[in-house]
Amino acid sequence: MRPSGSGASGEYDPFSPAVLEDPASAHRKLRGECPVHHHAGFGEKGFYTLSRHADVAGFFGDWRLWSSEWGQGPIYVREGGLKSDPPEHTVYRKPVTSAFTARRTAALEGWITATAGDLIDGFAGDGRADLCASFAVPLPVLVIAKILGVPASDQGDFKNWSDAFMAGQNAADPAVQGAARAEIDGYFSGILARRRETLAAGGPDALPDDLLTSLLTAEHDGRPFTDEELLPLILLLLVGGNETTTSLIANAVWRLLLLGLWDEVRSRPELVDAAVEESLRYDPPVLGLFRTNTRPVVLHGVEIPEGSKVHGLYASANRDPEAWDDPDTFRLDRDVDDLRRRHLSFGVGQYLCPGAALARLEARVALRLLGERLPGLRLAGEPARVDSFMMWGPAALPIAWDAPA
What is the rounded CA–CA span in Å between residue 199 and residue 169? Predict the structure, then answer.
């Protein structure tokens, strides 16, 4: 058995420009040479990284060993809510999943389609745009604002807060991310206070039918949830509901255009589902999440001490040749059901993203409408990457098309 930390290759730095620009190449090397890697250059203890599909799937499937109690990012912080272990996680997940049932998600398709069409109307005549700024960012923000029941006019603040929160994951100091969280908490604390006043004056029927009302009126052990319990949930919904879906849409469009597959998907709508699922496998918006082990672990001859931060890489697992045929090729002929079942991009088991069906719906609508409305769509420059070592997607994606004369 090698001593803890000796599995480090000495070459993999998840924060380096080379890895941030091309994580897949770095992950390929990790899988082959160093499946349990220790990165010492973060905080006091650094963190470990798992890269093989079997290890990553088992990692996210065993919450008793790999706990969320100290957060799902690289810093040690008790976030609570959905970023906790059962039974606490189960308690908080129930009111959230009630807002993302198949029936409720399907009922949003018409509204999402109309909203996406309105966004495209705003730039279709220009011939050029930044897909992210004009479409891939505002669409998910408008959708999550509608679901939560907050003013769409505040969408600019939502995006700024989310960006700052995600960028804070690059810092070992919890205060960096805490500043962004304080702004989000302050905004929603005010809304919750006003909702409680309405509830006290007029009862549940006086409240709007949205997710905030569902959370506010839900009970645990015969009592309502407190702000301290609700705000971490809302934070996760806000960030997860826009950052990841923005990246899913932008990644899919970018990859299809880059590989010359866009026209095939545009002309064959039956391929849209395959394009979305293969994009999730090939370019997952979240590269991976963290857990903390509750006892010492030896994996591939490397000792991981109890209480270590460990990064399970969805992105690497999704391209492991032990799990996938031709993993480094983006293919539209893969079995869609098999992709949905085996890629890890939305999590595993009880930690499966509750908004997965909604994100898929938004991506399908986006690909279909962009194909219909923007003839001759093409890349018009290099994308700029999002500022987070845990995320994968463009922050800006220049595109052009044949605008009407």
Answer: 36
Domain of residue 368, CATH code: 1.10.630.10
Is residue 263 situated within a structural domain? Answer: yes
pTM: 0.91
DSSP-based three-state secondary structure for 269 = helix
Three-class SS of residue 45?
coil
| Percent of the chain whose pLDDT exceeds 70 | 94
Q: Do 300 and 369 touch, CB atoms closer than 8 A?
A: no
Residue 111 lies in a domain: yes
3-state secondary structure of 378: strand
Question: Angle 342-88-103 (CA atoms, 0-180°, nearest 5)?
Answer: 55
Alpha carbon dihedral 125, 285, 46, 303, in 10-degree steps, equals -160
Report how many domains make up the chain. 1
Model confidence pLDDT, tens digit, residues 60-89 = 999 999 999 999 999 998 888 888 899 989
* Structural domain range at position 190: 17-400
Residue 395 belongs to what H/E stretch?
strand 394-396
